[in-house]
Design a protein that fits this description.
The complex is a heterodimer of chains A (about 260) and B (about 250). With about 260 residues, chain A is mainly α. Chain A has 13 helices and 2 strands; from the N terminus they run αββαααααααααααα. Chain B has about 250 residues and is mainly α. Chain B has 2 domains: about 40 residues; about 200 residues, Orthogonal Bundle (MetI-like fold), CATH 1.10.3720.10. Classes of the chains: A mainly alpha (about 260), B mainly alpha (about 250). At the A-B interface, helix 1, helix 3, helix 4, helix 5 and helix 7 of A face helix 1, helix 4, helix 5, helix 8 and helix 9 of B.
Chain lengths: ~260, ~250
């Protein structure tokens, strides 16, 4: 399984050729090309939107998971609520993206409801822009944030919370100094899953953003299948892989620190 | 505060389910333009079953999903047993590779395999897709089976050995029944992953072997259509059934 990744690394340093896609000549030009204004912009845009989507997913999920895992005592209801999250998690995100298209389009549900309520006088342009892409990504990736958080909350040891309360800590302090540190491994896992998925799913920007909104995923896809510039596509993926390794290292560190807190 | 918190979680559920429910309702709408409701119809479903392209790609998808899930389950279970039972040098490295593969974006795996197939001069089509899907499913199976293995009491095996059971008997009578729920739910997950995969299939399949998600993607690019609503609703129901089966299996054991 490692061989193909090494293949990408090697190709990213080679020149392009029409017939066999690559010529065995060493070059750094693919990486130089990456640092031109146009591509740096795509990278920044992608990371911006990925961070934004990750942050919103965390913001939406954290209180939600807290409510379903901590305030509900009945195990049957709890299991049922969890299954309601697992269903969208298992459903193809292509189908869910398409469902989002139906809701957002000009004569779709959202516009019609807003019109009927008299909040707007003509349909809003909800589809084929950044708004649609980010909503689509948040919608598709929300379960990827909820499930790791849920696992972390289930492991939460209530004795720590009780101890802190007995020692006079207020609600806010308990949350900030006990609950968050104890669920940090879930936060880290969820954030990494959402962030990385945002980088790869090329069909969400394609379907919801129209053809104009490009992210790294689309860029890689186009280099391989449209522009047929494999070395350049490989250079982009190499950068992405390096990023993944860095994120995994950060995650491993967070895990280690949590274990230390627990002991 | 308590009421507000509950209301909030209801809002999240609405956000998760509303688009899918709208999709299913519209799939029965008689009007071609979904903005107006013109009564219930099954026409779009009937149209699906007369669309040859869709039928072929559905068959292809089911074939690939069944084969890749089964082969990956077999190889994955054996690897999990090996990783769990034997302490070898590269064990730790191997386990971390498994986790990296699960977490890394599909697109990286897609292009890596495309490059590999191209270098080996394998023509893109059925076999490349099958190999790619096995690679996609394998790490998930290994993780599920290992977590199942970790959850049971190791003394059971020791006890059986003390009572004179050989390795094969231990495997057949103790390990297999204990990991079976994990193996089955792993298979179901692999089947779903394979059936739903867009990104990897996009890179590694050839023009003469079209699978359902790719057909769906090229249809959806052209906008919303009632037939696609019907198709997506059907696929959603299939997913529901798979989750239901998987849940039943786990519940029985727990």
């Amino acid at each position: 399984m490692l061989i193909p990744n090494i293949g990408i690394l090697v190709i990213s340093f080679l020149e392009r050729e029409e017939a066999n896609f690559v010529k065995f000549v060493f070059t750094l030009s693919n990486y130089k090309k990456l640092f031109s204004a146009m591509y740096v912009k795509v990278f920044l845009k992608t990371f911006g939107i990925a961070l934004y989507v990750t942050f919103i997913c965390l913001l939406l999920s954290y209180p939600f998971v807290y409510v379903i895992s901590q305030t509900i005592k009945n195990k049957g209801i709890k299991d049922f609520l969890l299954i309601l999250v697992i269903i969208p998690f298992w459903t193809s995100s292509l189908i869910r993206t398409y469902a989002m298209m139906i809701v957002l389009r000009a004569n779709g549900l959202l516009n019609n409801s807003l019109l009927a309520l008299g909040l707007i006088s003509e349909p809003l342009e909800l589809l084929y822009n950044w708004f649609a892409v980010s909503i689509g990504l948040i919608y598709s990736l929300l379960p990827f944030m909820i499930l790791p958080l849920y696992t972390a909350f289930e492991k939460l040891d209530h004795d720590y919370i009780k101890a802190a309360q007995d020692l006079g800590a207020g609600k806010f302090r308990v949350f900030l100094e006990i609950i968050i540190p104890l669920t940090i491994s879930g936060i880290a896992a969820g954030c990494i899953l959402v962030f990385l998925s945002t980088l790869g799913i090329f069909y969400i920007p394609e379907l919801l953003g129209g053809s104009k909104e490009l992210l790294i995923g689309n860029l890689i896809k186009n280099q391989f299948l449209v522009a047929r510039d494999w070395p350049f596509g490989s250079a982009i993926s190499t950068i992405l892989t390096i990023l993944i390794i860095i994120l995994m290292a950060v995650y491993a560190r967070v895990q280690k620190n949590t274990n230390r807190v627990m002991v | 505060m308590h009421k507000l918190a509950k209301l909030y979680s209801v809002f999240i559920y609405i956000f998760l389910y509303l688009p899918i429910i709208v999709l299913i309702i519209y799939s029965f709408n008689a009007s071609k333009y979904a903005s107006t409701w013109q009564g219930v119809t099954l026409d779009w479903y009937k149209k699906l079953f007369s669309n040859n392209l869709l039928i072929t790609s559905t068959q292809n998808s089911l074939l690939i999903a069944t084969l890749s899930a089964s082969i990956a389950t077999l190889i994955g279970t054996i690897s999990a047993l090996g990783l769990y039972n034997y302490r070898f040098k590269a064990r730790k490295a191997f386990s971390s590779i498994v986790y990296v593969l699960v977490i890394s974006p599909d697109i990286i795996m897609g292009i890596s395999l495309l490059i590999l197939f191209n270098f080996m001069h394998i023509k893109l089509g059925f076999y490349t897709l099958l190999l790619a899907h096995i690679t996609l499913n394998l790490p998930f199976i290994i993780i599920i089976v290992i977590s199942r293995l970790k959850s049971f009491n190791k003394n059971l095996i020791e006890a059986a050995r003390d009572l004179g059971a050989n390795e094969w008997t231990i495997f057949k009578e103790i390990i297999l029944p204990l990991i079976l729920p994990g193996v089955i739910s792993g298979w179901l997950l692999a089947f779903t992953l394979s059936l739903d995969d867009v990104v990897i299939s996009f890179f590694v399949t050839g023009p003469n072997f079209e699978v359902l998600p790719l057909t769906l993607l090229s249809m959806a690019r052209l906008g919303v259509k009632p037939e696609i609503n019907a198709l997506c609703s059907l696929l959603f129901i299939v997913t529901l059934i798979l989750i239901f089966i998987s849940h039943l299996i786990f519940r029985k054991k727990a």
